[in-house]
Amino acid sequence: MHLKRRDVLFGLLGFSLPVISSSCANRSEAPNLSSTTSPTPQPGLSAVRIGYQRFSELDLIRTRGELDRQLQQQGVKVEWSFFQSGPPMLEAMNTGSLDIAGVGEAPPIFAQAAGTQFFYIASTPRGLKTQDIVVPKTSSIQSPEDLRGKKVALQRGSSAHYLFVQVLRDRNIPIEEVEIVPLSPADARAAFEQGTVDAWSIWDPFLGVIEATGNVRNLNLGRDRRAFFLASQNFVNTYPDRVKAFLLEAKLTEEWGQQNARAIAQQFSEELKIDVAILEKANQRRGWGLLPITPEAIAAQQRVADTFYELAIIPKSIQVAEVTVPEQIYAQLYPST
Question: Where in the cell is it found (predicted)?
Answer without folding.
Answer: Periplasm
